[in-house]
Write a structure and sequence with these properties.
- The strands form 4 sheets. Strands 1, 2, 3, 4, 5, 6, 17, 18 and 19 form a 9-stranded mixed beta sheet that branches. Strands 12-13-14-15-16 form a 5-stranded parallel beta sheet.
- The model has no long low-confidence stretch (mean pLDDT 94).
- The chain is built from 14 helices and 19 strands.
- It has 2 domains: 96 residues, Urease, subunit C, domain 1, CATH 2.30.40; 324 residues, TIM Barrel (Alpha-Beta Barrel).
- Helices cover 35% and strands 18% of the residues.
- By secondary structure, the protein is of the alpha/beta class.
- The longest helix has 23 residues.
Length: 435
C-alpha cells in the first residue's frame, strides 16, 4: 500500500452497501467524512461534500482489529532463533501488511517497553504508517525467562515494581504470562488497576476462573489448557494441549460454569485460533505452502520452517492433533453461544502467521467453528472496540466515530473469503489505495 491520499475537508463515500456493525441490516448509504471522523451517514445521494468517491456496488464496514499482534518484529535466523532486538525494517513491513489487509487497530500484547511506547507515539503522530496501536510492555513471567520481550518477576513487590516501571513509561496495558500464579497475579492486578491499566493474561499457573475472580481484564488464546478442567498428568510440552483437548468434556459442570462466569463478568477472550491451527496442522501445505508467505522476506520464512513449535512431532502426533481440532472449535462455539465477549487476534509473527493476512484466516476459522458470518465480522470490529473500551470512538460506522474503514469489492456476508477483496482502506480520514 502506498500513496496515502489526504481527504479534502469534506468527502462523501457514495452509495456503498453499508455493514455498519450496529446490528442494522445491510443498506446502501452515503458516508460523509470530515477530517478524521464520520460526520454523517445519510441516504444514497444525499451526502454533500467537496469530493465524492463512488462506491456503488462496493461494501463498506469498520476497519478490522487484531488484538494479539506483536508488531516489534525480531529477525529469525535459519535455525529459528530470534534475534535479541527487533528489526526496524521488519517492524515497518509488519505495520504495512496489517494496514494493507484492512487492520486499522492493533493491540500488541507484549514488547520491549520503551520501544513499544515510542512506536505507538510515532504511529499516532503519523510519522510512520500503520494501524492505531495499543501496547503492553514487557511480559511478566517467572522462572528462567531472560530474553526480550519477557521480564522475570518472582515476588509480589518485584511484580508491583515492574508494573510501576511500565506505567511510568506510558504503556496501555500489562501482560501476565503462563508462570504467574494467583498471588503474583493479585499483586499485578492491584498495582495496574491503581494506575488505571488493564491486565491481560496468557494463563496456566493461574486458572481462568481464578483470574476472573481476581479481576483480570482479558484472557489471551482460545482455551485455558489448565488442570482445573482436565487431569494433571499431561505432557509438559505443546503436545499436552492436544491431550487436554482429547480429555476435555464440554458437558462437565465446571466447563459450563466457567463459560457462564466469563459471560457474566464480561471478560473478553481473544481467541487466536490461527495460532493453534498453524501448530496442530503444522505439517499441512495450507501453511507451509501458503501463498501469503511470499509477502515476507525469505529469511523470515526459513526461520518459520526451522523454528516451528511442532517440527519435532511424529506423524502419529499430528494425526491426534488433527482429530482434536474439532473439540477446540466446539469449545469456541460454546463460548460464543454462552455470550462471552470474543475478539480476533493472530499472535503474529509466530511461525506460519503472516501479519494482516492471518486475520482473514482467523475469521474463516471462526466461521468453521459455527459462528455466523455477520457475527464474525462483529467480533473483528465492534467487539474489539468494546474490549479496548473504545466503543464510543470506533467499531461501528456511525456519526462521530473515527473514519477507520474498509471498502470491499464483494459481499463478505455471501462469502467470508471476500474480506480479502479490499478495494481501499480509510484510516484517520486518509484513503489508502489497495495494495
Amino acid at each position: 500500500m502506498s500513496g496515502a491520499v489526504l481527504l479534502s475537508a469534506t468527502i462523501v463515500l457514495r452509495g456503498a452497501t453499508l455493514l455498519d456493525m450496529t446490528g442494522a441490516s445491510p443498506h446502501r448509504a452515503d458516508v460523509v467524512i470530515e477530517g478524521e471522523r464520520i460526520a454523517a451517514v445519510v441516504s444514497p445521494g444525499a451526502g454533500k461534500g467537496d469530493r465524492t468517491v463512488d462506491l456503488t456496488g462496493k461494501f463498506l464496514l469498520p476497519g478490522f482489529a487484531d488484538l494479539h499482534a506483536h508488531v516489534l518484529l525480531h529477525p529469525t535466523d535459519a535455525k529459528g532463533h530470534l534475534a535479541a532486538k527487533p528489526d526496524r525494517a521488519l517492524t515497518l513491513l509488519t505495520l504495512k501488511l496489517l494496514l494493507a489487509h484492512g487492520v486499522t487497530s492493533v493491540r500488541d500484547p507484549g514488547a520491549e517497553t520503551e520501544a513499544a511506547v515510542a512506536l505507538r507515539k510515532s504511529l499516532a503522530a503519523g510519522t510512520i504508517a500503520g494501524p492505531r496501536l495499543w501496547t503492553c510492555g514487557r511480559i511478566l513471567d517467572t522462572g528462567t525467562v531472560d530474553s526480550e520481550p519477557f521480564v522475570r518477576v518472582e515476588t509480589a513487590e518485584g511484580a508491583r515494581a515492574e508494573v510501576r516501571k511500565q506505567a511510568d513509561a506510558g504503556v496501555d496495558c500489562i501482560k501476565a504470562y503462563a508462570g504467574i500464579g494467583p498471588e503474583l497475579l493479585r499483586a499485578i492486578l492491584d498495582e495496574a488497576h491503581g494506575r488505571h491499566l488493564p491486565v491481560f493474561g496468557h494463563l496456566h499457573a493461574t486458572t481462568w476462573r481464578e483470574a476472573v475472580d481476581l479481576g483480570i481484564d482479558g484472557i489471551e488464546h482460545a482455551a485455558p489448557w489448565t488442570q482445573d478442567l482436565v487431569p494433571r498428568d499431561l505432557n509438559g510440552d505443546l503436545f499436552g494441549r492436544v491431550e487436554w483437548l482429547e480429555r476435555l468434556d464440554l458437558g462437565d459442570f465446571p466447563v459450563e460454569a466457567l463459560v457462564a462466569t466469563l459471560a457474566r463478568r464480561r471478560v473478553p477472550v481473544d481467541l487466536t485460533l490461527i495460532a493453534m491451527h498453524t501448530k496442530l496442522f503444522g505439517d499441512s501445505d495450507r501453511w507451509q505452502r501458503n501463498p501469503d508467505l511470499l509477502l515476507l522476506p525469505a529469511t523470515l520464512v526459513k526461520g518459520f520452517r526451522a523454528g516451528a513449535f511442532t517440527r519435532g512431532w511424529t506423524e502419529a502426533q499430528y494425526v491426534r492433533a488433527h482429530a482434536a481440532w474439532p473439540k477446540l472449535l466446539d469449545w469456541v462455539r460454546m463460548l460464543y453461544e454462552g455470550g462471552v465477549l470474543l475478539t480476533t487476534g493472530t499472535d503474529t509473527p509466530t511461525p506460519w502467521i503472516v501479519p494482516g493476512a492471518s486475520l482473514h484466516d482467523e475469521m474463516l476459522l471462526l466461521e468453521e467453528a459455527g459462528i455466523p458470518r455477520a457475527e464474525v465480522l462483529r467480533i473483528a470490529t465492534r467487539n474489539a472496540a468494546i474490549a479496548l473500551h473504545r466503543e464510543a470512538e470506533q467499531g461501528t460506522v456511525e456519526r462521530g466515530k473515527l473514519a477507520d474503514l474498509v471498502v470491499l469489492s464483494a459481499d463478505p456476508l455471501a462469502d467470508l473469503h471476500n474480506t480479502r477483496r479490499i478495494e481501499m482502506v480509510i484510516q484517520r480520514g486518509r484513503i489508502l489505495p489497495a495494495r
